[in-house]
Amino acid sequence: VKVLKGMNAQGVITWDPEGQEYGHSTYYGDPRLVTRLAPEMEDKDASGVATVDAYFQKFRDAGLRVGVCVRPQQIRFVNGVPIQEDSPDPARTLEDKIAYAKRRWGCTLFYVDSTVDAAGHALNPDIFEAVTRAYPDVLLMPENQTTRDYACTAPFDSFFHHGVTSTPAGVRAVYPRAFSALYAPDNWSGGSLAANHDKLTAAVRRGDILLFHGWYDAPANAEIRRIYADAARPEKP
């Protein structure tokens, strides 16, 4: 909480409260499975409050919005091991997972992982439009996106992995108020945060959000603070 407040953060996303017991390169993305996959998170304190509930409450008490990672796939257990399978109704799958996280922890921020169909294409934007109609008070951040997704979500992109410094100009030509969630917890292999300061500052001025590591005061956080401070100042003519 101290780190988040020091960054003037609006909220915090916990990628995987279900844990990472099984070796894999992705996330479960189903908060309903906390009890099964991470039963220790259900241990209760003297007041009868589960560890996972107390965890999210700590951030809410600090005035922060909270969120988790969800996926449009559904999990099937094979010999006790969770396997991701494509859902016949991705919108309903997402809505059910969001409903659980909202009801139990008050979540309103959702990174949506693996937003592709069985053929590996970005999900039909109708899916996210349906979810945002059902839950207009949440912010969805899909990993894979189409142009239409910017009409109702803040698509996830990465400075750290790909050097992305802004919502594409072509997208803003279609949706002037579009914005992205840019993952920028550290320098990109092709250039540092400091070297891209002006580009990232311009992006923040236009509404883009920089995502950072919130569980420790990472070295990159100082540059992100400078970017936001400069973005808050009037633009030079």
Quaternary assembly? single chain
Large-scale geometry: globular
The count of strands amounts to: 9
What fraction strand?
Answer: 15-25%
| SS field, number of helical segments | 9
- The run of helices and strands is HEHHEEEHEHEEHHEHEH
Largest sheet: 4 strands, parallel
In what order do the strands lie side by side in the largest sheet? 1-2-5-6
Tell me, rounded to a whole number, the average pLDDT.
95
Measured on Cα atoms, how large is the radius of gyration? 18 Å
- Estimated structural class: alpha/beta
What is the CA-CA span between the terminal residues?
37 Å
Low-confidence stretches: none
Helix content: 25-40%
How many domains, as an integer?
Answer: 2
List its salient traits.
237 residues, alpha/beta, four-stranded parallel β-sheet, three-stranded parallel β-sheet, 9 strands
How would you characterize the overall build of this protein?
- The chain is an alpha/beta fold and 237 residues long.
- The chain folds into two domains: 10-150, no CATH class; 154-232, no CATH class.
- It has nine helices and nine strands.
- The chain has a four-stranded parallel sheet. A three-stranded parallel sheet has the order 7-8-9.
- Helix 8 (197-205) links the parallel strand 8 (181-183) and strand 9.
- Helix 4 (90-105) runs parallel beside helix 5 (125-134).
- The termini are far apart.
- 33% of the residues are buried.
